[in-house]
Amino acid sequence: MTSSILVVNSQEVRLADKEGIDIPILDLIKLVGKNLAKEYVRRNFPWKVLFAVGPGNNGNDGLSFAKALYERNFLVRICNLFPEVSNPIRDWFINNLPKDIFVRPEEVQNLANEFVFVDAMFGIGQRPNLPDIVLSFLEMSKKFRKRIAVDVPTGIDCDTGEVFKEVVWDETFCVQAIKVGLCVGQASVLSGRKTAIDCNIRFPQHSYNYLGIDDTGQIVGIYDLKDIVPRRHPLSHKYFYGPVGIIAGSEQMFGAAIFASQGALCSGASFLKVFSITDKVLLPEGLFVRVSKYSAEDLEPVKISKIKSAVFGPGVDCFEPSVFDLLKSLQIPVVVDAGGLTKSIPVLTRQFILTPHFGEFERMLGGSFKNIFNTLKNFSEDREVNILLKGPTLIFQGDRSFIFEIKNSKLSMGGLGDFMAGLITGFLAQGMDPFQSSLLATLVIAKSGLKSFWNLQSIIQNAKREVAELFLL
Fold first, then answer.
1. CATH number for the domain including 57?
2. Alpha carbon separation from 101 to 74, 76, 77, 96, 402 (Å, rounded)
3. Inter-residue contact 311 to 422 (CB < 8 Å)
């Protein structure tokens, strides 16, 4: 069991500054620098370090970080980009550091081959119109052997993830909590590996909890899995863990129904009912039911009411809105994926999970969005559904909200989304709630992708092993 890692926005940081700090601000910034330095040393990063320091609190954190490394006998150089700025904390650090470790902006380029570049220029308060000297330093940073950002990389909005200046950072050392804008889209990739450094700051409010998979496959920032993995009854039979309804497929995309079925079987679901308009969906483990079209009229006569959970949409290219009325009337958990995700999705219930990727979510909205977090929250509340957004970052939206960061190009495979939808549906059939099913399926996919070859069947085989290990917890 590991401690929870928080994800916060700028408003929550400012609230913590007022209510979550119990020591004088200078002592806090000294602690921040000390703990940032401890993490730097723990990771065996290089001995020579250049700090680019800005005018605000982020710059003060950088000065403290630099002082702590200097006291550990690192070769430290500091470039103060705004020497005209003065405040008591900033002045204290500058006056308590040797003058010869400060360098002029024009000297920085000479250090690129040997030094690590540490960005402490701007933090949560930065805006798109960055000063020219900052833009030039961001461009110069690309020449350094390694790039580390303090709290928020300069050039990224910490709330929305908007990118003002594109620089790839190797690491971001976040003070106490990861900032929400670093966990979505391009910003998720540019900010590199994110580490929350404990600095004894309390957050009275926080937006999300953060999850991820580290390089060894260990889960980062998750409570005990024993609390959510379903227990299997020793005297159970096939109806304990099913039937799972797979409403999927078309003549051109029948493979989607097969992958969704494989996902459900991987989860431990013991019995499938596959409802499809194509008879190309043949699985020995499932009961196949041919329907003429996807509508309430065609599905009701085939006793769909017997199922414990359902997935609707993989490979579906045409359906009638009455399908949602039928699924809602069954009062069972339902995953809506792929072809089922349209702009016309009605108000449903909290037993529904929508699983779009970014493009499908924009299609559901009927346009693009800037602040994805607020947009997801509003959409989830308006339609009364849970949302799992697939992409570099997966977001669980509802009563309990998590950000799960996955960076693995092996997962960029056609059919994996269908498999994942089936996996979630199978967990739902075993009594897990929508949040638990989404979380567990995401963990399985993330871990199985680490050990896979560059093909979907390899990921599926590893997913089966991961699920088998989970059931042994």
1. 3.40.50.10260
2. 11, 6, 5, 11, 42
3. yes
Domain extent at residue 51: 5-206
Say how far apart CA 287 and CA 381 lie, in whole Å: 36
For all residues of the chain together, what is the average pLDDT? 88
Residue 196 is assigned to a structural domain of this protein: yes
Furthest-apart CA atoms within the chain: distance in Å? 83
In a domain, 185, yes or no: yes
Give the Cα separation of 468 and 473 in Å (integer).
9
The domain total for the chain is 2
Kindly report, residue by residue over 256-305, the tens digit of the pLDDT. Answer: 999 999 999 999 888 899 999 998 877 777 788 899 999 999 988 776 76
Is the CB of residue 104 less than 8 Å from the CB of residue 78? no
Tell me the pLDDT tens digit for each residue of 42-80: 988 999 999 999 999 999 999 999 999 999 999 999 999
**SS3 (DSSP) at 42:** helix
Q: Residue 214: inside a domain, yes or no?
A: no
Q: How many CB atoms lie within 10 A of CB 144?
A: 20
Highest mean pLDDT among 182-191, 225-234, 420-429, 462-471: 420-429
192-210 residue pLDDT tens: 989 999 999 999 988 888 8
State the Cα–Cα distance between residues 397 and 403, nearest whole angstrom: 9
Residues 240 and 186 placed together within one structural domain of the fold: no
